[in-house]
Write a structure and sequence with these properties.
Jelly Rolls; about 20% strand; Arc Repressor Mutant, subunit A; four-stranded antiparallel sheet
């Protein structure tokens, strides 16, 4: 499965991480999607079907049909995408809070699911993969953006990222000069989930980064657990499996060898 990423214009990078294109190979394929606090708007520009299985809602299978624009929201567990031959997706990966900043639509309805996104103008912009980045840059540049939110979520996101997810909810509220209840409302609007859940996802992402660079002996995992504020090795492993769908050692083995043992990575 081929995957390409493109940086947006500098003025958009505070809200958009990347534009992307993913093409299915000649054979059916699948991939695991890790929880990361981000949202995506994407379009099936090909002829093949794809299916999304959100593990937070295990009884649900979401059809991703050709010719339809979708919004994929914040995930509180990992998911799996299965693609048939002929599916080609063009997408926009928004940083946490980025979709709300650019569209002023709360993320709550899209948590752990994928919804049709009825924006015909944007759908037409995303129909072709050739020249995708420049077309999207022009489209965003031509729009009248929503009024700036009262609270700067990108600043809150920066504090969370800098702490590796270890800053407390109380400290975040203090930095934003709001009550804990107001902070929760800000997070629900911007990412669809409470701040405590978002902090856990950011901390998982920090573990994810470290496992790509280090061994996964019990001693190393215990050190990572201690440094990132987990109660113990078991707590880290259980939380990692929720957000990634695999054990830390499995992920590390994949990055060291490229062998997934039949799993979707």
């Amino acid at each position: 499965m081929a995957f390409l990423e493109y940086l947006p214009a500098p003025g958009l990078q505070a809200h958009i991480s990347a534009y992307w294109v993913r093409r299915a190979e000649a054979e059916p394929g699948g991939r695991r999607v890790y929880a990361d606090g981000c949202a995506d708007v994407f379009y099936n520009a090909g002829t093949g079907m794809a299916y999304y299985h959100p593990m937070a809602r295990q009884e649900v299978v979401i059809r991703l049909e050709p010719g339809v624009l979708y919004l994929g929201g914040t995930m509180t567990a990992y998911g799996v995408v299965r693609s048939e031959p002929g599916s080609v997706f063009t997408g926009i990966r928004f940083r946490p809070g980025g979709f709300y900043a650019l569209f002023a639509q709360t993320m709550e309805p899209a948590v752990d699911t994928v919804l049709p996104f009825p924006d015909e103008e944007l759908r037409l912009v995303m129909q072709e993969e050739d020249g995708l980045a420049s077309r999207l840059d022009r489209w965003f540049d031509s729009r009248s953006l929503p009024r700036a939110a009262r609270y700067d979520f990108s600043a809150l996101r920066g504090l969370v990222d800098a702490s590796g997810g270890q800053i407390s909810v109380e400290a975040l509220a203090k930095e934003a000069h709001v009550s804990s209840r107001t902070l929760e409302r800000i997070f629900n609007q911007n990412v669809g989930i409470p701040p405590k859940e978002f902090l856990r996802i950011v901390r998982f992402q920090e573990v994810f980064k470290r496992l790509q660079k280090t061994d996964t002996s019990d001693e190393s995992l215990l050190r990572v657990a201690y440094e990132l504020g987990y109660y113990d090795h078991a707590h880290l492993t259980n939380e990692f499996k929720k957000y990634a769908g695999i054990l830390p050692k499995e992920l590390s083995h994949f990055y060291k060898t490229g062998i997934g043992g039949g799993g979707y990575f």
